[in-house]
Recover the amino acids of this structure.
């Protein structure tokens, strides 16, 4: 297992190769640990996950799922999502290394990690939005602390990605994800939120860069869930797979206010804001450059429409404020005495 820990971060393997390595282990605990570490370096999880587990008994497969937890549903061809990792856990360190490698391999590696918080127990480092993985981690990820961040993939859609039809989408949701539909084809969201959790996890497992979705189809998938966090998770998960990005504004418009704010935080306000359709509920941290940029744009839009109020329910540092919309509005927002 120690040899696997040393070798894995510097190599990619096929699931078949991982299956052959796993066969070399006889003890269940070591076998599962090696399989979990190598899972993080698999190059073809989407197509050949069965080859990885071919040498494992049912109890070992279950133990592997327990070892990886929710991340057993992750597929690195579509890494967009939220991650909470503990570097003292070898598997989490391997996951961080793989996600870092994926980030640096994308065309815009400087803006695919958001809301980074690295807690080393004696100090907490917060990195502003859209700055990508820390440059110091290019060689090796840290060995201690915890890491929290949102990954928003900037990779372009695969040129071979298939635009899924509405009929295929319904069939996929029903047979692969377990969503029920009525006679008219309308989804019947599961009222058991634990089952809905599993459906969201299965969606993450099954959706990769082999499909592309329209924004209307994203909203259709969101309608399969009742809880706001599930709807937001679906929108985040499918963001990088959308073929008509200009219509993305229709997705937050279909959400409630707090859900819009959560989606904006998860994807980054710059990825959600649309100057032609700016309406929405925003929770912005002006210490983050990308948040400040969007706040400035909102003030500019308001200045272009002075006849009617544009800003409602303004709160600054938790306190409700009545701010006059005029040329000094931005200065009022950022005044130190406020």
């Amino acid at each position: 297992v120690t040899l696997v820990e040393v070798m894995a971060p510097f190599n990619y393997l096929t699931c078949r190769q991982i299956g052959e390595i796993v066969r070399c282990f006889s003890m269940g605990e070591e076998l599962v640990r090696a399989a979990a570490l190598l899972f993080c370096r698999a190059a073809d999880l989407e197509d050949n996950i069965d080859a990885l587990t071919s040498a494992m008994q049912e109890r070992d497969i279950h133990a592997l799922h327990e070892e990886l937890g929710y991340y057993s549903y992750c597929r690195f061809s579509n890494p967009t999502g939220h991650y909470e990792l503990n570097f003292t856990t070898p598997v989490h360190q391997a996951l961080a290394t793989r996600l870092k490698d994926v980030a640096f391999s994308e065309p815009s590696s400087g803006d695919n990690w958001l809301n980074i918080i690295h807690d080393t127990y004696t100090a907490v480092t917060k990195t502003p939005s859209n700055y990508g993985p820390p440059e110091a981690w290019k060689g090796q990820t840290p060995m201690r602390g915890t890491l929290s961040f949102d990954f928003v993939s900037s990779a372009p859609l695969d040129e071979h990605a298939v635009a899924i039809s509405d009929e295929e989408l319904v069939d996929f949701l029903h047979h692969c994800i377990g969503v029920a539909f009525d006679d008219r084809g309308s989804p019947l969201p599961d009222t058991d939120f634990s089952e809905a959790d599993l459906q969201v996890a299965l969606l993450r497992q099954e959706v990769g860069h082999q499909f592309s979705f329209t924004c209307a189809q994203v909203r259709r998938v969101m309608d399969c869930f009742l809880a706001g966090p599930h709807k937001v998770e679906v929108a985040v998960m499918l963001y990088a797979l959308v073929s008509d990005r200009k219509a993305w504004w229709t997705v937050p418009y279909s959400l409630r206010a707090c859900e819009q704010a959560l989606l904006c935080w998860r994807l980054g306000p710059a990825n959600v804001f649309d100057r032609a359709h700016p309406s929405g509920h925003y929770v912005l941290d002006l210490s983050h450059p990308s948040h400040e940029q969007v706040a400035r744009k909102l003030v500019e839009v308001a200045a272009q429409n002075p006849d009617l109020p544009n800003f409602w329910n303004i709160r600054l540092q938790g306190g409700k404020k009545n701010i006059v919309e005029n040329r000094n509005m931005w200065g009022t927002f950022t005044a130190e005495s406020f």
Observations:
- The first strand starts at residue 81 and ends at 86.
- The chain has four domains: 1-72, 74-155, 162-255, 264-338.
- The radius of gyration is 22 Å.
